[in-house]
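Fold sample X.
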Amino acid sequence: MARTLLCFGDSNTHGSPPIVTRGEAYHRFDADTRWPRLVASTLPDWEVTEEGLPGRTAQFPDPVAGAHMDGREGLKIALQSHGPIDALAIMLGTNDTKTRFGATPGKITAGIASLLDIAMGLEMQQRHGGFRILVICPPPVLEQGPIRSEFVGAREVSLKLPALYAVLAEARGVGFIDAGALIQVSPVDGIHLEPDAHRKLGKAVAETVGRF
């Protein structure tokens, strides 16, 4: 019987390509490119469910994009919409570094802790019969490209996240991947992943989940 992995994240889980021009039409990488689909192709005994929402944060309702960008509510909905699952991969934090949120590295990590509280709580664990969790720290942002004005000061904040995420993951007893040790964001917009980065990340996630 196939096991199920739920991938919960933002535009880099959704498969949004780097932004070339601000306000351009919606695009999405195809299934042969997106990292969750690459995990599925690598692990034939796993089904992979994609729950990537462009603009999603770990904890902030967005005054521009909407309150539904708050990952805490989104995770509850996802865990109640799908199931049963055997593993959950969470990759969030990039959008939390946006200038308008004014979030410190510690505050962003606290948002990830909130998501773990939801996922590891008795309600969700009982609903799915128990499941493993993998926290993925996104690669640091670059303050360049057409949306750089939204991320003023974000690189310094994002560079401090891997160490904090790692401590949190160890304390909670969940899996951890520092994506920034494997891949980089695209220099085109400083936020999104190029196809090769999707490939490398998919390989790393598949190796980790395959050991669950």
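Fold sample Y, listed below.
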Amino acid sequence: MRLLTILGLTVLTASVSACGQNRSTSPNPNVLSADGSSSEARELNDPNRSTIWDVFGPNNSEQVTNVNRYLWAASLDVLSFLPVQEVDPFTGVIITGYGKPPGGGRSYRATVHISDPALAARSLSVALQTSGGAPVSAATTRAVEDAILSRARQLRIADNKL
């Protein structure tokens, strides 16, 4: 049993020490280049360089937002007449293509951003565009936001009755 432990530690030590090997392709890594820096210094200053310690460092990935599920579902439900182009539930963004509302004559495109996990008007932001480039009135945008908020409240009430 002790022999297995020693053998395992030896293999582990060899594996970790192999991580520190010099990977330069030049025969002498200390040779200076035309700009006066060594290849080792260039490797250490490379912004794309990664090490094993990057796993324990801060996470530099996209900012993740907690999205209210009722607002998310209500946005997709209210804007169901528009073709969905992109959705990102991690950042809370829904982008649609152009489409005509039922009974309407003008084509619209919507971008919805849900920025907070609360079921509140401050959590919802809707931007509308028309295909002809005509401005969308604030009343139309407000009406779409109100419809989404009303539908979200309906979904929450229906969910609590279960």
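Sample Y note: The mean pLDDT is 81.
Also: Helices lie at 2-18, 39-44, 69-78, 138-160.
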